[in-house]
Specification:
heterodimer, A: Rossmann fold, Alpha-Beta Plaits, six-stranded mixed β-sheet, 26% strand, B: 13 helices, 80% helix, globular
């Protein structure tokens, strides 16, 4: 029997009135994994994270957090989850130390030594006694992360963790997340900073309009473009013909008499066969590799 | 980079109450208001040293002097600590929605109903602390008044049993009033899920309540419908205004100056009205917190 997933979604749906925000969402996040959760604004990422935290109830489907079904098991399992959802929610009239103490009290109390240790860990050791109202966005983000780490959660749920951080801060957080992951903590990151996701995540799920558009590792995502750079004679004519095909609308001219086009099936030989059938003979077909941003945009924009 | 050790994670009611008290401890407006109430008590006690009736009766008829002093002291508490309970209760609840900290607290396993109960209990514990402090200060003040006029504390020893009973009932009346105010503050903030709306509605609750009593009085004088009397008797504010009289069985000038219900409810019925409002507001707070999604 496989061990319980850190997070498992089975046909999860959420409706607000007639509008379905999350539709038939299914995936599994393994313990110790650093998992990226991507999607454009309004794709349903925050709604999904809120369902994980028991803040909103699913309309249909199943949601298991650390093996417990939500929202029924929330009281048992949520104390083992460290959330940083949307902007860091803190008490601005209290100091950073007091914020940690107050949130710690909710969990049965934490000693001051631990509060100071966490402040040092997120780089706020010398600003812990300042009121949060005076903190910059980056400092609030760091404190929000410290709040999420208060009780060393088994599952860390982070929404845009690099928000407001300078490059050095981003590097520190990246290193911290890697350390946490190697210590067994599952890290679930929702982010728009694709470069960051690319650097720290093992696998990603990409949402488009509440539906799962991609699930898998990043190397497959980059490779599985289905787009080819075709070196061909009479490139202009070929481009016109390709654009007239139902699958070739996105074809565009490439450098030096080449054409960049999506294969009708994703495979090079089928593209070649189609070209030959129309009287165009390719000198070469090179599969295009995209960066994560390209892949993301292609997956999330093609229905716009 | 060393990682911190795990801390015990318990999200029980006791822990939640402690967390609320920790927030309250750092809430400056609450303590400024409490200081103002105690200062006002000092001013009232000082004014009582200038009262000729107190001066002439405290030596030989301490019960008469007590009856002269108690209503003002009790009114300052009911109004002052009532306001603190209203603002503290609504602030404790509303601030979580306004700041979005509700996401963190509920998202780490604190039940919504438990959170509301913890906030109510923390507000009530603060009220109990304020009441205790108030009683100590008032006792000290009344003793100093006795010393001022008679040079000894003998009048307190001569206070008949009914005087002590009145004192206990005054404390009970203050506690009931503070509890009802806490329920109003918590209930309205939970229902609106907003700091601003919660505080504004809580502060407006009693003025509107009392204004309604006056409106019912006017309507009753117009058409003599029993309905207006019954409705006025179901109002919380006017019932609390009469509570000292209802409990102690005698009128006090201060509370009689405030709007009263048009019906003279017996003690148990008046307490029933207060209890119904308190339980009703708490139920409203629990229902609105437990039901629905947290989108704040």
């Amino acid at each position: 029997m496989s061990p319980a997933a850190a997070l498992e979604l089975r046909s999860l749906c959420k409706r607000f009135g007639p509008k379905e925000v999350v539709t038939d969402l299914s995936f599994r996040v393994e313990p110790g994994e650093v998992f990226g959760f991507l999607g454009p604004n309004g794709a349903g990422k925050t709604t999904t994270m809120r369902m994980v935290l028991g803040l909103i109830r699913p309309s249909a489907g199943k949601l298991l957090v650390l093996g417990e079904e939500m929202p029924a098991g929330g009281r048992r399992v949520l104390p083992q989850v460290g959330p940083l959802v949307e902007t860091p929610a803190l008490y601005p009239n209290l100091s950073g130390r007091d914020n940690l103490a107050v949130f710690g009290a909710e969990l049965g109390g934490v000693p001051w030594s631990r509060v100071d240790e966490l402040l040092a860990l997120v780089g706020l050791g010398d600003r812990g006694r300042d009121r949060v109202a005076r903190y910059s966005l980056g400092m609030r983000q760091r404190l929000g992360l410290a709040v999420a780490l208060l009780h060393r959660p088994r599952l860390l749920l982070l929404d845009e963790p690099a928000n407001g951080l300078d490059p050095a801060g981003i590097r520190e957080i990246r290193s911290l997340l890697r350390n946490l992951s190697s210590a067994g903590t599952t890290v679930f990151i929702s982010s728009h900073v694709l470069g960051e996701v690319e650097r720290v995540c093992d696998r990603v799920a990409i949402l488009r309009r509440g539906r799962l558009a991609y699930l898998g590792d990043l190397s497959s995502l980059r490779a599985s473009t289905g787009t080819f750079l075709v070196r061909i004679e009479r490139a202009d004519e070929a481009l016109q013909w390709l654009r007239a095909q139902p699958w070739g609308g996105s074809a565009q001219a490439g450098p030096d008499g080449t054409v960049e086009v999506l294969s009708p099936t994703g495979r090079g030989r089928d593209l070649n066969r189609a070209l030959m059938g129309a009287g165009f003979f390719a000198d070469s077909l090179v599969p295009c590799e995209r960066d994560l941003e390209e892949a993301f945009l292609q997956l999330t924009e093609e229905e716009r | 980079m060393p990682l911190p050790d795990a801390a015990p994670a318990r999200a029980g009611l006791k822990a939640a109450v402690f967390a609320e008290l920790a927030k309250l401890r750092r809430q400056r407006p609450t303590w400024i208001l409490a200081g103002a109430v105690y200062l006002l008590l000092g001013l009232v006690l000082f004014a009582l040293t200038q009262d000729p009736l107190v001066a002439s009766t405290i030596g030989q008829r301490p019960l008469t002097a007590l009856e002269q002093m108690l209503p003002s002291v009790q009114f300052v508490f009911s109004a002052g600590v009532g306001l603190i309970m209203l603002t503290t209760g609504s602030r404790l609840v509303g601030i979580e929605y306004s700041l979005g900290t509700i996401r963190i607290i509920v998202g780490r396993g604190t039940g919504r109903a438990q959170l509301v109960l913890a906030k109510l209990l923390a507000t009530l514990l603060t009220g109990a602390g304020l009441l205790l402090g108030y009683c100590l200060l008032a006792s000290l003040g009344l003793s100093l008044i006795a010393l001022h006029f008679t040079g000894s504390l003998a009048p307190m020893g001569r206070l008949p049993m009914v005087g002590w009973r009145d004192l206990v009932l005054a404390v009970a009346s203050c506690a009931i009033s503070a509890t009802a105010c806490a329920a109003v503050g918590v209930g309205l903030a939970a229902a609106t899920r907003s700091l601003t709306a919660g505080i504004v509605l809580s502060i407006l609750f009693f003025p509107l309540d009392n204004a309604l009593a006056l409106a019912f009085r006017g309507l009753f004088q117009l058409n003599h419908l029993h309905l207006w009397q019954a409705l006025s008797a179901a109002l919380l504010g006017p019932t609390l205004n009469r509570l000292p009289e209802v409990l102690a069985g005698q009128g006090a000038a201060v509370s009689q100056a405030l709007p009263q219900p048009l019906l003279q409810l017996p003690q148990l019925a008046a307490l029933g009205v207060v209890a119904a409002w308190t339980v009703g507001l708490l139920a409203l707070a629990l229902l609105t917190s437990v039901r629905g999604d947290i989108l704040d």
